[in-house]
Structures are given as structure tokens and as C-alpha cells.
Design goal:
The structure holds two protein chains of two kinds. Chain A is of the alpha/beta class. Chain A has 15 helices and 20 strands. By secondary structure, chain B is of the alpha/beta class.
Chain lengths: 449, 455
Amino acid sequence: MKLLKLNISGVRGLVGQTITPELVIDFASAFGTMLPPGPVLVGRDSRKSGLMVLEAAVSALLSTGHEVINLGICPTPVIQFLVRQRRAVGALAITAGHNPAEWNALNFINGQGTYLNEFQGSELLDIYHLGRFDHQKLKKSPAVINEVNPEEVYFAWLGQKLRTAEISRARFKVVVDPCNGAGARLVNKFFSSLGCELIAVNNEPSGYFPHDPEPRPRNAGEVASLVRATGAHLGFLLNSDVSRVSLVTETGETLSEEYTLPAAADYYLRLQPGAVITSLSTSRMIEAVAAKFRVPVIRTRVGQSALVQALLQEDGSLAGEGSGGLAFRGFQPAFDGFAVMGLLLEAMAVEQKKLSELIRALPRYHIVKDKLICPPHRLHSLVAETRKLYPKAEMNSLDGLHFTLKDAWVHVRASSTEPLIRVIAESPTASRAQLEVDRVMSFLNRLLG
Amino acid sequence: MKKRLPLKVSVSGVRGVVGESLTPQIAARFASAFGTYLGPGQVLVGQDTRPSGNMLKKAVISGLLATGCQPVEVGILPIPTILFLTREKQARGAVVVTASHNPPEWNGLKFIGPEGLYLSRSRVEEFLDIFHQGEFTFVAAERIKTPGQEKNAGQHHLNKILSRLKVRTIRNRRLRVVADCANGAGATLLPQLLRELGCEAMFINTDLGGDFAHQSEPVPENLKELCCRVREFGADLGLAQDADADRLALVDERGRPLGEDLTLALAVSYLLGQKRGPVAVNLSASMAIDDLAARHRVPVIRTRIGEINVVEAMLERGAVIGGEGNGGVIWPEIHPCRDSLAATGLVLEMLASRREKLSTAAAEFKKYHLLKDKMDCPAELAFRAVVELRHRYQSENISTLDGLKISWSDSWVHIRPSNTEPIIRLLAESRSPLRSRRLIENFKKEIKVIIRKLP
């Protein structure tokens, strides 16, 4: 089975099978055709396939008449920031985020520095399917400008947004695992600007992933043991483009990535009250935090594009989801792992609390996630079938099916990045959540045969 | 009728109009096919001066990376330098982004195989089969290599040429030279070569911005400025490269263009005096080559038209010199390919060691009158007409290696349907311009009659 997933803001697949030079050129040509004239930024994470994809994309952007500013290996939030700062007409972020090393993806970013919205995404697909690209004759070729240390302007900006002096005064000792992704090495600059002592592992942007670049407890063992061994104040795990973060407390407890949103919101809503945007699949913990600040929680479809669009439309305070990706209104409309790390350190410094103490203030829910590999053409019909399992439950069909039960919820949805059905359940007790997931999984397995 | 897009796929690669027929998609597909054909290994990537070169080069690099090859960028360099480097670096092959002498809105890709040789006809067919089947061997992500870059790559080529020349002899003559690089890649290396050889040199058309000051074929009508400058500068000679720097034409000290076919004759004449051995040229080269070879009692091998055919014959028969009548001199001591830089070295060494003027050296070849012409004719009719001519002249001394060549004691005619255009090419050579013209006109007339009678 060839794996290729299109969603409104990107195209993702297995390198060599579906992510080929020609596919990349076709999509980047469509993107170059859609954008107004002007410079386009291009950056990538550290994957070994990154340069193959980047060269193809740059070729297509030049061919469609765009000057290209090549940021090289660069975290996606930095690319998104620089789009506005450089007044570029758009950007391409070449990264498969949390997916394993054999994957890669093109993520399309508009002139506002956000992922393409639904309308822009469907326009891009129309141009792609039509296959008529605006290739220029190139009597004069647009330039390719290679930018060295593009992150410096971004860090300077971020340093002003955070209460840097107070964070520095706390002299935090921090363990971080950038998974040899785009954040590697840059974390040194970032944490030293915040006066932190840094212990970093997997800190070479080599593209060799010692574990899947997905920030979650399964991958956090190394960070947890280092936190304990060094007596650090906390630990961070990053995905390959620094758009997601998960946390490890000073006791070495590896927190589910679901905690990142409520922990950050509990501090940030005090600075900037407003609606919280989250997805249907995200833990209910955020409801309790929002209730404390008397702000509404708005649930959208899963994914950065939908969340950030809602954040802008609803003029909310922050948007984030259970995967550990968060965007803050006062920072930038992008999932930004550096901002998340900075704000959590600021919360600890300002409130003079340990991370475990901040976490203890949150209600404890247990979330259980599972997934089922499924042929792409059956994804949505199988998801629809699960309605029969919960005929009486309150149901939301914004993104897959979300059932609210008496003391639990279940969310069944087709992944937008892989041919998978994701099943997620949450309840105050772990056994109850597991029970609901098992129920849905065995039901789906039976249907799949 | 739908406008036909000008994309030409031939033995020498692919060419098209940028943005219309030659897109990054096509370039990436050709590079993917080439990477699949070569298998994983180093592949050099070079380019000429056209502005679209960067865009196409990136698509090529992507295609090579995706098929597990390691592309090594060598930048803007003469074609012979890239061929030389491919062997020197023991690379699997090379891709050059160039459309040689096509107009500026064109570009293309040339494919070079192992040992720094162009692909032979049968290898081109294998490669094109892969392209057309569209099944490329893309490697998994962890087997994608990191591309390399080679700075000052041309130095190796210059060093090799200098090592085979009598540098001191040439330096002592302090020759005055005007060189026209035709705004091509030759401008990257020719100035340094002439400096190393102690020449006082003046250069025109060395700007590499992608604008061509004149058409790049080094034929007399394109060399007016050069001829003028040679006289003004009081130069001993003028050099004219084409945009790829594989061909070389000469202008004598009085500012007269010598005609492209003379470069080969002079190189053969000089080299056979230094080293005896077989000579290989194509069917269309001047009979001056046969006379020179007879004088040195060495054989001449005649081949089909096309550089790779001459090269293969040279390698097989151990030829010491060879080439084409269009100014393409092949000196296998350096590398078996047409090379304007190696040819420059030979011509300068000849002038320095013989201590004579270029017009004097050229004088002995004045008696040959080679004429080139063509006539419109659809490909199918052209082939049938040539077959009919073969029958009619079978009792003469003929060669059917490539079209039809008929040789008499002091003249010949060569009639050949073109591979790329619907025309028949006619060449004739004799000891008088009138006679050569008459030969061509007579055969044109005969072909027209044959075509009219064809069923």
C-alpha cells in the first residue's frame, strides 16, 4: 500500500514511495502558482530526505518566478515567524513533525505565517489537480538567498515577549531532548538566553532519530532518568520541528503530552484571558482550567490549521491540543514549542512553584489512545459505523465521531496524516477509559475482518 | 492544430524551451531515470551560463538524491572539463544543464556516463527506456546521501593539459592572443590557461550573466568582432570557443577567420609530427586529414557523425588524435572528448615550436574547398532517396556508414538525412570552390528527380 495523505495544509508520505521529486515539484509548483508574486521562505527539519525535498521545492518555486529565501534546517515556528518579519508571500516547511524518519511532508504556510486555511488549501489542490502551473521563461532567474542563523531574530523577539529577567533569576536546570531534529543546537542558544543550565541529549541535527520524534511518555525514558540524576527542575521532549512539547517533572515523572495544554493555560489565561481553542480529542482537563478563569472552551477539528484559524476568528487566548502543540495569541498564530517552554519556565519562576506543584493543581483524568491501521478508502465509513455502539450518547460529528458518556468521552476519527483510525477515550479512572477503547477497537476489528 | 511543444530527446540528451516544454518536473524525471540507470554512486552536476540553470540544477539534484546517488556540484564549467573530471573523480557519471548553442530561452540536460564518456547509442536507448517506463528505483529515506560540492574543479583539467605541453617553449614566445569566449563556460578557464602559457591576452564576451553577445557557433559570420580585435591588438592569433567550450575556431594574425575545419587539420598536422599513430575523424571531415595521414604513413579511421562515434573508434584503435570538422579536436592524452582548451594548447605549441605565423601554417590547407549545404526533405523521403542513390553509385568508391559518401581521387560528396530535422545535409570537397559547388548542385538536382519519381 502506498501511503500518501493530503490534508488542507500539507501533503505527507513515505519517502521514495509517494514523496518523490516529481510529486514535490508538482505541489510546490501549484503553491508557487497560487501565491502572489514575492519571496517565499523554505526550511526543513533535519531528516535525511530533507535536502532532496528542499531542492525539488526550490526548483519549482524558482520556476514559478519566486525569489527563495532558504532557511536550511529550521524549526517550523521560526519559519512561521519569519514569514511576517520578512514580508514573504508564503513559506514551505519540509517536516513530518512527529512521524518516523522514513516519512516527510510539505506544509504550506501563507503570508500571515499560518497553515493554509480550508479555502486556500482547496484552491491549492484545485491547481494541483488541474496540473497547469505558472512556469516562467526565466530570462532572469529569481535569486536563492541562503540565510545563516535565521533563528536569531526570532529568539530576540521571543526574549522580549517572555519575562526573561525573572526566568534567569530562577537559574533553572533543564533537560531537553530535541530528538536530533530541527531544534537540536538551537536549544543551547534559547536556554542560555533564559539563563538556564542546559543538559541536552540527542542534540545534533543529524536526522538520525534515536526514537520516534513524538513527545510522549513512551519516548521520555532518557530525559526522565537524566532529570533524576542531575536534579534538574524539569525536562522537555520536542518533535522534529519544535511544534510539540511534552514534559517531565522534577521528580522524573513522564507526563502525558495531554498535560502541556492545561499546564500552560493555567498560567497564560491569567496574563491574557480569553477563549481556549482545542480539538475534540483533547483531554477534559482544559475544561476545569477554563472554568477557573471563566472563559469558554471552543472545540474544533483536529490539527494546527483548524485550531489557529479558530484562535484568530474567535479572538481567543490560546489554542492547543493533546498532542502538545500550542499557539498563544500574544505570541504568534503558530504551534510554537519554544514559546511553550519559555512560558512554563516563566510560570514556575513567577509563581515560585515546581512543575509537579503546577500539575497537581490540575484535575486528573486518564486518557487512553489506540490506533488501527485501515485501508484509506474504508477510513470514514468504518468511523461512521461506530455510531451503532453508542446509540444514546450525545454525539459531535465535527471531526470523526465524538461521544460524550456519563463519566467519560470517546473520540473515533480518521487520521488526517496517516491511514489510521485513532480511538481515544478519557475518564477519571484509567480502567474505564481502557474499557471504552477496547470496546471500540474490538468492534472495528470485527468490521475489518 | 495544437502547437507542438519543442522538447527534443536525442542521443545527446534532452532540450526544450524553459517554462514551456522544459519544466522542473521533466528535469527531475530525467535525473531520476539517470540515477536509476547508473545506480548509487557519485554523479557530477554542472551547468552553463543560462539563468534557468539554477532552477533546473536543483530539480536534477533532487532526482539524483531520491535515487540514492550522491550529486557533486561543480558549477559553471566547460563540457570537456566536466567529462575529464568525471573520469578523474571516478564518478558514475555526470549531468550537465546546458543547451550548447541553442537560443537563450532554451535549456537542456546532457548525460555523461562512466569514464567521462557520452553514452553510446545503445546505452542511451537503455536509459530512455527507463525514462519512458517511469519506474525509478527511489531509495528509502535512510539511504539518501548528502550532496557534495567541488570548488575550483577546473584546475585539475588545466593541470593535465599543462603537463602534456612544452610550457617553456610556449612561454618564451610570449604570444599575443585575442580570445572570444562567446559568453560561455570557456571564460571560466581559458584566461588562466593563457596566463600559464605566458600569453599576452585580450578577452571578449567573457560575461557569464547568461546573455549571448553573438550566436555561439564559431563560424566566420559570428566572429566579426574577434577578427577586428585581432587586427587592432596586433595579435598573433584569435581564438573562438563555442558556448560549451568543446569547439575551437581560429583567426589568423591578419584577422581572417580560418574556417572551423582548419582547427582539426592543424592539430592533426602538428601532433602527427610529434607522435605517430592512427587518426580518427567522422565521414564529413576534410580530406586534408587523409593527405596528412598518408604523409606520416598512418591509417585514418572514418566514423559515423556524432562525437561518441569518433571517441569509441579512437579508443578501440588507439588513435593519437582525432575529431570533427566543426572545430572539435579530440586529444586523447588529455581526455577522449572534443576540447577547445586542449586544442588551444596544441595550436599555441605548434606556433611556438615551429616559429611560424598562423597564416603560414594554414597556407598548405588553402587548396581544400569544403562546402556545406542542406535541402528541405521529409525524413521518410530523405531515407528512400539516399537508398536509391546507394544503388545508383554502388560501383563507385562509396561508404554507407552514415547516409552515403562517394569518394573520387581528389574530391568527395557526403549526403546524409539529418537525425533531428526534416532536411538532407550535403557536403562536398574538392580542390576548387567551383567544383565543390557544382558537386552539391548536381546532387541536389538528382535527389529532387529521385523524390519526384518515388511511388
